[in-house]
Write the C-alpha cells for this entry.
Amino acid sequence: MSGAEAEVTERRPAERDELHKREYDLLDTILQDMADAVVAEECYVHVQPRRVFVRVHPDRLREFIRYMQREHDMWQVSTLSGRDLGDDLQANYHFFLNDKKIAITIKVNVPRDKPEYPSITDLVPGVDFVENEIREMFGIVPVGHPNPRRCELPENWPGEEYPLRKDWADPRGLMKRSKTTGPRPKEEL
Amino acid sequence: MTSTSNRTVVIPPRVSIPIGPQHPALKEPAMFKLTVEGELIVDAEVNIGYNHRGVEKLAESNTHIQNLYLLARICGICSATHNGNYAQAVESAAEVEIPERARYIRTLIWELDRIHSHILWLGVAFHEVGFDTAFMYTWRDREVAMDMLESISGNRVHHDMNTVGGVRRDVPDELVPKLLRGFDKLKERMRYYRDVVLHEKTFWDRVAGVGILETDVAKKMGAVGPTARGSNVPVDVRFNDPTQAYVPMMDTGDFEMILNDRCDVAGRTIVRVEETIQAIEMCSWLVKNMPDGPIRERVRPRIQPNEVLARHEAPRGELIHYLVTNGTDKPERIKVRAPTHANWVSMAHTLKGNYLADAPIILAAIDPCYSCTDRVVVVDADEQKMELVPLDVLRVRANKWYKENPRRDE
C-alpha cells in the first residue's frame, strides 16, 4: 500500500461522545492554542480510549513541546518511532500525560530528500537514545542532537543504509538468510 | 623518611575502565565505560546495541499470528508481556472485543510472569552483593511460580498463551485449588524475603544510599517501572492506563500503586518485593473472580488500516507496541519499546558519584534485559564481511570441532 493512501485510511477518529470527552477537551485546547503549529486535519482522537494523535510542523516542534510542558505538565516520554510514508518520513514522539491519563503522539513529517528536523533532546533528555536510533534506522536526522553516536547498529554497518526504510533492498541477503529453516545440504556447509 | 617537606603527593589519575561487552557479572552484552578517580566513579558512558536482532524489520514481513511467537522470543524472562501486548494491539486495531474469561487468563499470566521475574531479580540482587544463600533460596521459591505457569500453559519459559482474539488454553477448574495453595506459599515466602531485605545488615548496607536517582531526574530521563517507582515517580500502566482485566481489578479499589521515596537501590528493592506480594494478591483475585465462558473470539486475519499504541506494565516497566496496520494480514510498522531501553538513559547519571564496587548492583538494579533493548543481530566475521550463522551450520561446526579436539578423558 502506498504511503499517501495509508495516511488517509489508517486514522480511526472517535465520535464526540461522553466516553472520549476528556480527550476531545485536550485536543480542542491544543487546536485553539497552537492553531498555526499543527496540521489540524491530521489531529484526531482515536477510538481506543486515552489516545490522541497530533501532527506538528517540523519547525514549530520545539515550540509545541515547550507549550505542552508548560500548559499540560507533559513529562513522561515513552518513545520515538519512525515511519516510512513513501515521499515523506515521519517521526512519532509518544508521550503520556500522567495527570490527564492520556497518551499523546506528536508526529513530524519530513521530506525524504531532506529528512531533518530540530532535536528536542535538550528539552526532553529521555529521548537521547531513541533520537540516535531513528537516525540510524530511518536516516531521519534530529538536528542539534548533543551526542550523536552509533547506538544500535554494528560499527561496520554502511553509513548510507537505513534498514527500516521500506526501500532498503537488503544488499547482503541478511533477511533471506535469517529466515532459512531446516538443515542445509552437507556440501553447502 | 628524613624530610616530609619535599614529598610529592600523587593524586590518583582518572582511569577509564571498560566493563563489557562480555562481562561476568551481567551475563548479557552491554558496554559501560566508567571513568574512576581512585574508587569513585566520576563519569559513565553506556553503550548498547550488541544484540540487535532486526525483529522490527522481520515482523513487517510476517503475519500477525507469526509475530505473536516472534515477539514472545524478544525476551526470555518476560515473554508473556510482548506476546500479550502484541495480541491486544492487534485486537485494538481490528476493534474486536475478546471474551471476559480470556481477559482474566491473559492478565493472570502477566501477573504470574511478574512474580517470577521479580523473584528472579531479587535473587540476582542478593547474588550481586555477595549474599548467595538468599540467592539460592529465592530461586528455589521462584520454581513455585514457574510450575504454576507450566501447569497453565504447558511451558516453563515461553508461555505463548495469547492469540489474536483471546487465549489459547483454558485454566481448568481442578487447577484452581493448586494455584491458590501456591499463592499462599509464595506469599509466606515473600514476606520472609521482605524481612530479609529490611533487617539483614549484610544486604541493607550494600543497597541503602547507593545509586541515587532523584525524583526530578527520573522524571526528566523518562525512567519507567520499579526504577521510577523507587524514586517516587507515579508511573504504572496498570493503574494509569488499565486494559484487560486490570479495569475491573482497579475498580475494586483494593490495590494501590506501590511507591517509595528513598530514590536508591534499596527503594527499588522494596518496591519490587512489595509489588511481588501485591501481584500474588492480584493473582488470587483473578483466580477467584474468573468468569465462565469462551476463551477466544475468531478474528479475521486481515486487519483493517489502523494505528494503535498498546501499553502494558511489564515487570521492568512500561512496554509499548506502536502498531500500524494496512488492511493486509501483515503489519505496516511495529515499533517495540521495551522498558530497559527507557531506563538506560538515566543509568549514566545513577552511576556517577558511587564507588566502583557498587557498580554491579546499580547496573542490576534496573533489572536490565538486553535482548529486549537490542533488535538486530549480525554476526560479523571480519571488517567488511557479514555472516549470519544459522543453527544447523553452528551445530555441524561444533561437532566438527569436538571431533578434532577430543576431551582428555575420552
